[in-house]
Design goal:
- This protein has 506 residues and is α/β, with parallel strands linked by helices.
- Helix content is 33%, strand content 22%.
- It has three domains: 2-84 and 217-299 and 442-502, FAD/NAD(P)-binding domain; 109-211, no CATH class; 303-439.
- Strands 1, 2, 9, 10, 11, 12, 18 and 19 form an eight-stranded mixed β-sheet that branches. Strands 7-6-14-15-16-13-17 form a seven-stranded mixed β-sheet. A two-stranded antiparallel ribbon has the order 3-4.
């Protein structure tokens, strides 16, 4: 039986980050991935040779002078120079269309720039806009982990932990469209404004408002960069393999791990970066309290997406990289609530990008993500990929047609798009091996205690987008927090402050 220092389960950005940090400290690591390819939701797929992203579409945290929090984390991992961010135009990062109001709004980058633009465009709400942004800024300043060197301290509780985003917005402003603009980025973590704490909204949206960027080669850019450096270290990587059983539990520690390929290994500790309910299914129930099991089972999935993937052969505008949202109403809570088994005409994001196909030829891609709900496909939840009944494929066709119709109506530059493929929440569930097919793991509800750090078994840890905060930055931070715990604060602080690490982050 082979022995490792650490096992990391899941090869998304959280798993890759944890494996890299531990290997940088000379630890032997076994990285396990249940799928056939590495990357989790970062991994791309290709249809007709055209690349599309599954779960990574854009991010914040990059800056022109490479001092953003994502720049710094990638610098510490030694891969920042391997990844090329592609910035959306600062003056027009995101266009939001309101069909019911017969208007649209262009959102720039930069929190202070956004603040001044909103005050100019909503003059009667100037004082409320200032109050909102001052409160927003106070949350950011009270959270040291948004700065790389603050990662040696877990975020402390503040009053905004127990106040919803909706409460703060309602307190500050009254214009319905302005309320929607202030809360619109909740679609980037799949939780309604009346459910999420104001603090968590600030932490997720902060970097997205400062700068907005894609990455050359999309999610594969992160995966390829990190896998390349992992292969140079003391890391064994196995695909199509996960943990089947945590065995030989003594003194609240797992001493033997039985893998799905039939082999057995041992390790000092294991870090799970997969969905909390998948972690719970792997751990021995007799060693877990009913309270812990109930807490994990009570987690609700975040909203999902129904996605249309398309291509434009000869775009009229030359194929600019754009992000456009279509919001049918101004009430985000209502739009992000499932009212029927088959919701249509919901909130939607449409991303256009320039890519290269398998032969290296330029292609112009379109990804349209309409908010969906995991219950929408509940009637087919016990069916398998490519073995579903005709009714399911009729549903996919009708919903895809509806999305294309809306794009043609509201986004003229997409009228020449041809549909390449579509995906429902079941597609995401089966492709990503998560329980529900939700877009962002668990719903980030106020007052909820996520599963992060050490679990009831003393050498089992949890990280990932459901642990701390969703998104690339939140998932990476969760792994850094766990690694600090495993390596010790003094060692980890020296690591963060070392010249060799930070020189590549500057």
């Amino acid at each position: 039986m082979k022995t490792y220092d650490y096992i990391v389960v899941g090869s998304g950005i959280a798993g890759l980050t944890a494996a890299r940090v531990l290997s940088q400290h000379g630890k032997s690591v076994l990285l396990l991935e249940k799928a056939t390819i590495l990357g989790g939701s970062l991994a791309r797929f290709r249809v007709e040779g055209i690349p599309y992203d599954v779960g990574f579409h854009f991010t914040g945290g990059f800056t022109d002078n490479a001092d953003g929090v994502l720049d710094q984390m990638l610098g510490i991992l030694g891969v920042r120079d391997r990844i090329r961010p592609l910035f959306f135009p600062r003056e027009a990062s995101h266009r939001i269309i309101f069909p019911s109001l017969n208007t649209s709004y262009t959102v720039p980058s930069g929190i202070e720039v956004i603040r001044e633009k909103l005050k100019q465009d909503f003059p009667r709400e100037r004082k409320g806009i200032d109050r909102y942004h001052e409160r927003y800024r106070n949350v950011v300043e009270a959270t040291p982990s948004l700065n790389l060197l603050g990662l040696d301290e877990f975020p402390k509780p503040i009053s905004e932990d127990v106040i919803t985003l909706k409460d703060v917005i309602d307190e500050c402003v009254s214009d319905p469209m302005l309320k929607c603009l202030l809360g619109a980025l909740c679609m980037c973590y799949g939780t309604r404004p009346n459910e999420v704490s104001f603090k968590n909204h600030c932490l997720v949206s902060y970097s997205l408002q400062e700068t907005l960027a894609r990455v050359e080669d999309g999610g594969d850019g992160f995966v390829d960069a990190l896998v390349a450096v992992l292969q140079q270290g003391n890391v064994d990587i196995r695909t199509r393999t996960s943990i089947e059983q945590c065995a030989d539990v003594r003194d609240r520690k797992v001493h033997r791990f039985v893998l799905t390929d039939g082999s057995e290994v041992s390790a000092k500790a294991c870090i799970f970066t997969i969905h909390p309910q998948s972690i719970l299914a792997t751990l021995p129930k007799e060693n877990l309290s009913k309270g812990f099991q109930n807490r994990v089972n009570d987690f609700e999935p975040s909203d999902a997406f129904f996605t249309v993937y398309g291509a434009i052969d000869s775009p009229a505008d030359g194929g600019a990289m754009t992000l456009v949202s279509i919001l049918p109403d101004t009430d985000l809570d209502d739009m992000l609530t499932c009212h029927a088994p088959d919701p249509v005409d919901g909130p939607m994001m449409v991303l256009r990008s320039r890519e290269k196909d398998s032969d290296g030829h330029p292609v112009h891609t379109v990804t349209a993500l309409e908010v969906a709900f995991v219950d929408t496909c509940k009637q087919w939840e016990n069916t398998k990929l490519k073995r579903r009944p005709p009714e399911y494929y009729n549903y996919k066709q009708q919903r895809g047609d509806s999305i294309v119709r809306r794009m043609h109506e509201h986004i003229p530059e997409c009228r020449d798009m041809r549909v390449i493929d579509t995906a429902s929440s079941l597609t995401y569930r089966d492709y990503l091996h998560n329980p529900h097919g939700s877009a962002y793991g668990i719903r980030q509800k106020i007052g909820q205690f996520n599963v992060v750090g050490r679990l009831p078994l003393n050498n089992i840890y949890a990280a990932g987008q459901s642990a701390l905060l969703p998104g690339v930055i939140g998932a990476m931070m969760s792994s850094l927090f766990v690694c600090r715990n495993l390596l010790g604060r003094e060692v980890f602080d020296e690591y963060l402050n070392s010249k060799s690490c930070l020189s590549t982050a500057r």
